[in-house]
Queue: 2 jobs
Job 1
Amino acid sequence: MAFQSSKNKRTLFNPYMNHQDIEALKEAIASSPDNLPLRLILAGKYLNFGMIEEADAEYQVVLDYDKDNIKAKEGLAEVYFRRGKYSAVIIIVEELISRQKVTERMLVICAKSLVREKSLEEAQEIYEKILDHNPDFEDKELDENLRMPSFDFDEGEDFEDEGDDPFGFGFERGPEDKDFFMEKPDISFKDVGGMESLKEEIDLKIIKPLENAELYAAYGKKIGGGILLYGPPGCGKTYIAKATAGQINANFIAVGISDILDMWIGRSEKNMGYIFDVARRNTPCVLFFDEVDALGASRSDMKNSSGRHVINQFLSELDGVSASNEGILIMGATNAPWHLDTAFRRPGRFDRILFVPPPDNLSKVKILEIIMKGKPMEKIDYKKIIEHTNHFSGADLKAMVDIAIEDKLRIVMKTGIPEPITTTDLIQAAKRHHASTREWFNTAKNYAVFANESGIYDEILKYIK
C-alpha cells in the first residue's frame, strides 16, 4: 500500500491566524457557496482554533457537494478523532486505504483509534506499514502499545541467574506475570445473537465432553482438542470463542500475531511455548488464536526459515508432544482458511472446522437489539430494517447503527434538541452502507468450486446456494 508522508504537511496552529480571517472567508463563501477550496480552508482554520462543531459542519457541506472529496474526509477523520468517535475514524481511513489515497497522518490517527478501541492486532498491522515507509517514525502512544520491547545489554553481561533473565522465558512465571493476557469472560452463549446451529455444534463437541468428563475418560476419549472457525470478517468468530469460555466457566487466552512474533531469533518459538504452558497450568482453558493463518501460513509459501520454525513449534504444541493438552480447547479463527498449512488440519490439531456465516434474519434482529440497547430510540421495526441488510455481517450492522447515530447527532448539533433514533434512520443508514462480506464470498467461491477435494468448503457452497 502506497501512501504519501504527511510529516511535513500537517496543519499546525498559526499564531498569526485570527478570527478576522474566518469572517473574511465566511463572507467570501456567502457569495460563492459552492467554492469548495474556500470551505476547506475555513474548515481547517476552525479545526486549528478548536472549533470542532464548525469544522464538522463545513466538511459535511463539502461532502454534500462532492461525496468523494479526499481533503474533506481527512478533515472529518480529524474531527471524529478529537471527539473520541474512533469507530468513525477507522471507517473513513479504511475507505481511504482501499482507494490508495491515504497519508501517513491518516494512518497514525487510525492506528491510535484502533488502540483505543482495543483492536491491537489491526493497529499493529497499520503501525508496521507506517514504519515500513518511515523507519524514523516515533509516537509515544503507538510506540508504548505496539512496538516490540528492546533490551540494552552490557557487553559480556551474563544472565545465568534465572531471576535476571531479561526475556522472562528462562523460568516459570508466577500468576501475577500472566494475568495481563488471561481472563475469565463474563459473557456466554446467551449474549451471542443468533448462531444457533454453531452454538449447538460447539455444545455437542466441546461443552458436553467437559460436563461428562468421567464418561469420556471411560472410553479413553480426551477432553479438549482444536476447532477452526472460518468465514467472512465481522461475523463474530472472536466473540463466539470468548462466549464459549464463558459458557464453560473456563479461562480465556486470546493470542494475536504480535504476541508471538519477535525480532530476536528463537524468541517467537519460546513465546509460543510459554503461552501453551500457561494454558496447561490453568485448565480448563480456551486458547484462542485470532487470524491463525498469519501464524500457520503454508510452509511452501515461506521465504525464510524463521517462519517455518514458528509453524513447526505451533504444530508441536498442538500435538502435545512435550506436555498434555488435556483440558485445553484450542480455537483458531481465520478469514482465509485456504492459506493455512494443511498440516494444521490433521487429527489432533484443528480437526474440527466450523463455518461462521453472516447472520440470518433472526440473528440480525437479536444482534440489532443488543447493539441498540440503552440508546435513545423510538419503537424500532427490526424486521423492516433487515430487509435492507442483505449479506450484512454483525460488524456491518454495527457500522449501520454508527452511521444512523452520526446522522442524528449532526441534526441535534444544529437544532440543540435531542431526537430518538427511528426505524427510518436505520433504513437510510443501511442503504448507505455496503456489505463487507461480498468480496470474501467472491474469493471463497473460487476455492469452494475449484479446490475442495477434501470437502472442507462444502458449507460455503451450501450457503451460496
Job 2
Amino acid sequence: MNVEIALLPDEILDKDISNHLVVIIDILRASSTIVTALSEGANSVIPVYSIEKAIKVSEDLCSEQVLLCGERNGLKLPGFYLGNSPLEYIGKHIKSKIIILSTTNGTKALQLTRKAAKIIIGCFLNIGAVVSYCQNYNKDILMVCAGDRGNISLEDTVCAGMMKYLIENRNNGKTPPLFFNDDGQIAYFLYRKFKDDDDLIKVLETSVWGKKLKEKGFAKDLVFCAQKNLYKTIPVLENDCLVVADKF
C-alpha cells in the first residue's frame, strides 16, 4: 500500500487516480458536516458544487424528504434550508432526509476526484474509523485536503498528518504503508506540533478560515469540529450520493 497526501485538490489534476481510495478532508466544514449528517440519520448527501445545479437537482427530485443546503463564504445561501454548520445537522429534522449540499471547497474537491476507484470523507470526528478503513484497503490511498479557495488549509493539513501517523502506528503487524511525497511529510510535521487534544482547537482557532468563521459567529463549530472520534460513520460516494459505507 502506498499512501500519498495532496495539500490541494489541484495537485492531482494530471494524476491517474483510477485505482486509488481517495479520502477527502475539509475540516471547516464540509467533511465535518457530511459525517455529522449521516451519523444523525440522514439517508444520503448529494454533493453538488454549482449552486444552480444544486437547485435543479432539488427541483428534479421534488420530494419532502429533500433538503437543499449549502453555503458560500461561510454563510447559508439565500432560500436554502441549512448552511454548512455541522451543528445544524443534529436533530430529528435530519432523519431519513436526502441532503443536497453545495459548499465553497469540499464539494469542489469531490468533483475533482470523481475518477477515483473509491471516495470517502474524513475529518477529526471520524478519524479512527477512517484509519481502520484505510488499513483494510489493499490498494493505493490518496488523502486530498480541500484547502481554502485554492490556498493550503492548516486544519486539513494537520488532520491528514494525524491520519498518516495513525496508519503507520496502528498497522496490527502488517507491513507499514509507504508514504513517499513531501506533502505527507509536511502534514506529519504539522500534526506533531499540534498533536494534543487542546491544540486541535488551537489549530482551528488560529487558521485563516477558522478566524473568519469565528468572526461570522461560528465559534461553536470550531469546538465541535476539533473533536476526535465522535462518530464511527464513514461516508462513501456511490452513484453521486454519499451514503454510510459498509464496514470491512
